[in-house]
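Please check our next protein.
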Amino acid sequence: MKLRVDFVDFYKELNKENNFFINILREVCDVEVSNNPDLIFYSNYGVDNLKYSCYKIFYSAENIRPDYRFCDFSLTFDYLDDKRNFRLPLYCIHLKDFNSFVKEKNLGVRPKNKFCNFVYSNEKAKERIEFFKILSKYKKIDSPGKVLNNMPTSFSGIRYDYKSKLEFLSNYKFTIAFENESYPGYTTEKIIHPLLVGSIPIYWGNPMIAEDFDENLFINVHNFQSFEEVVERVIEIDMDRNKSMEFLPDSSNFEKILNGFEVQLTDFFEFVVSNMHQSPSISSSFLGRNRRIFELFSMRGKNALIKFNKLFR
């Protein structure tokens, strides 16, 4: 018997038939994409998930907690003490593609003839802007993005244009790798991109980042008392070629990281499927009790559905 699945409220680039989630789920059972699903994966880019009365897995790469009144299981970056949640940092989703491209282009061994880069479009992340200004007192930092732009570049800055971004980063000894915000477990692609191409990440964001990566491979800003101390460390490494060479990672380690997550996620999906056969969906029960309210909000469109969601938070 096939498991019918669908994906809703995701980024528009998601290929429903060929993506990280469904490919691993196929290791567990026979799967088909269907408009009448037994199970949906949904993210935080919409509220269409509220229309479904079936099992639901919430996925988010953002700093958002799962609401188990609306979902049965979750895939997030969180270290939650809950068997319904699987910790899946964003970088795992695309790590295989990132690593393959770097190997194909030999980006990891490209000479690092430039000092440091800063590639961002979010103007609200004040910590990385502050650090940029402090480090800039030592040397010019190349910034091709929308924030603090100081150079023309062919790099588009598009979210999924990782190839041109990796090419760009591969020329630099350092990369300012600051997350949008700091939260335990919140690790995105910002550290993995420079690591893959041999650029030393100056990382801030997840205070537990050492749980994910060897601290000998990057500068962990959380280990310093101030940004000024971080700059001192950057200068020390920049002035000593031997020190910078110590940061070069072994690409095979990234494959081990990915394989580990894939094996664990396969086990988690087996747990999900087995539970689907044993008990009704929690989310369908919740929506069932509030069906009339949901229908009234649904008639008023997307903005009303968002209010429905917030009403029960």
Q: What stands out?
A: The radius of gyration is 22 Å. The first helix runs from residue 20 to 25. Strands lie at 3-8, 31-33, 39-42, 55-59, 73-76, 85-87, 114-117, 172-178, 200-204, 219-220.
